[in-house]
Design goal:
- By secondary structure, this protein is an alpha/beta fold.
- The chain folds into 2 domains: 117 residues, no CATH class; 194 residues, 3-Layer(aba) Sandwich (Rossmann fold), CATH 3.40.50.970.
- It has 13 helices and 6 strands.
- Strands 2-1-3-4-6-5 form a 6-stranded parallel β-sheet, sandwiched between helices.
- α1 runs antiparallel to α2.
- Bound molecules: thiamine diphosphate and magnesium ion.
- Thiamine diphosphate binds next to α7, α9 and α11.
């Protein structure tokens, strides 16, 4: 504790000294920019020394102050940059900025590592959840009529395109299946509007992801309804060399709404049939917008169609997967029900152990 307060006061002292140094230096620089201002090596070496014996809260506090100072230093360098004309001086400023930025990057894991040491033991809770997972495994039935199962398409896209792939989805059944049947393992590979439910999100989100990560495969998993809201952005993709891949999970319906009409409204289907296996012709629409258009109608063609789409990297590609219309998202919680009234499949609730209730 004593060491900590000493450390903090040392930190405060150094900080003050540094800001005095900094003020006098910057006044000088403003009068006449010089090539001799240097990256503040000494200050940061001393600060690093101070991290060693601080607890996470103290460390976070100091790091926050330090981050503000570094940002200020970067801002000053950027101001100098605006006046600078000499090429080697500009390079010098750029180097300083990069080194300051590197410190910011280094600070983040330092804070994380400190907090990791203080994590509570959650093994018991994890085991409970793993138990539920084993007892109620995720799955789906194959359609009886030989048509393509939407879950299967999404599962295969996940497997074939690999763990680095970035996925974006629209809103509806395909969104739920994309969250369930793609085995995400890396952060920031699943882009989604979540509960906001913005139909039309997938194509523009995939476009943004591809611009940000041009070397990464980006798939939009979209519904036939959602796709009809923002597909015109594919023209932007085609014209600006943004080769995203779009899988339309075409169940010719506003499937999520239709599922509720099936389960809770005696199959009175109102305004949920889109007829989109007939109109529009998604393959031709894609081609009209400068993309490659593909279509898949049989389970045995799913893998090779995905592989064909994976092989196209010079243009956006759209695959119209014609899928079983009546597939449902499970499990679900009906409107007004509590989470422990979750339904596994139609009129079947999980059997909980009595102590779990
Ligand atoms: C702009 C907008 N309108 C309506 C809704 C309500 N809504 C949620 S899912 C859905 C159906 C989406 O249909 P589709 O894109 O074909 O996906 P599917 O459920 O068939 O996979 C609708 C209409 C919404 N979320 N956003
Ligand atoms: Mg649909």
């Amino acid at each position: 504790m004593l060491f900590r307060s000493v450390s903090q006061s040392r930190y405060e002292k150094k900080r003050k000294q540094n800001s005095i140094k900094k003020t006098s230096k910057s006044t000088k620089r403003n009068e006449s920019p010089t090539k001799n201002h240097d990256y503040d090596d000494k200050f940061f070496a001393e600060m690093e020394q101070l991290y060693q014996d601080l607890n996470a809260i103290e460390l976070t506090k100091i790091i926050k102050q330090l981050t503000e100072q570094i940002n200020e230093k970067i801002k000053k360098e950027e101001e100098l940059m605006q006046q600078a004309t000499d090429k080697s001086y500009i390079q010098h400023i750029v180097n300083n900025i990069l080194r300051y930025r590197n410190i910011l990057i280094k600070l983040n894991p330092a804070v994380k590592a400190e907090f990791a040491k203080q994590q509570p033991d959650i093994t018991a809770w994890q085991n409970e959840v793993y138990g539920w997972r084993a007892k109620f495994p995720l799955g789906y039935d194959k359609p009886d009529d030989g048509s393509v199962s939407p879950q299967f398409v999404i599962e295969r896209i996940g497997k074939i395109s690999g763990l680095d792939t970035i996925f974006a989805a629209g809103v509806g059944q395909h969104q739920m299946w994309a969250s369930q049947f793609i085995g995400y393992e890396k952060p920031r590979t699943w882009l989604n509007s979540g509960g906001l439910g913005t139909m039309g999100y997938a194509v523009p989100a995939a476009m943004g992801a591809k611009v940000g990560a041009p070397d990464t495969t980006v798939w939009a998993i979209d519904g036939d309804g959602c796709f009809q809201m923002t597909n015109q952005e594919l023209v932007t993709c085609a014209l600006n060399n943004i080769p995203i891949k779009v899988a339309i999970i075409n169940n010719e319906s506003l499937g999520m709404v239709r599922q509720w009409q099936t389960l809770f409204y005696n199959q009175r289907y109102s305004n949920t049939s889109l007829e989109s296996k007939r109109v529009p012709d998604f393959k031709m629409l894609a081609e009209a917008m400068g993309c490659v258009g593909l279509r898949c109608e049989r389970p045995e063609d799913v893998d090779k169609t995905i592989e064909a789409a994976m092989a196209i990297n010079d243009r956006p590609v759209v695959v119209d997967f014609s899928v079983y219309r009546d597939a449902m998202v499970w499990p679900m919680v009906a409107a007004g029900k509590s989470n422990d009234e979750i339904t596994l499949v139609k009129s079947m609730a999980p059997v909980w152990d009595s102590q779990e209730l």
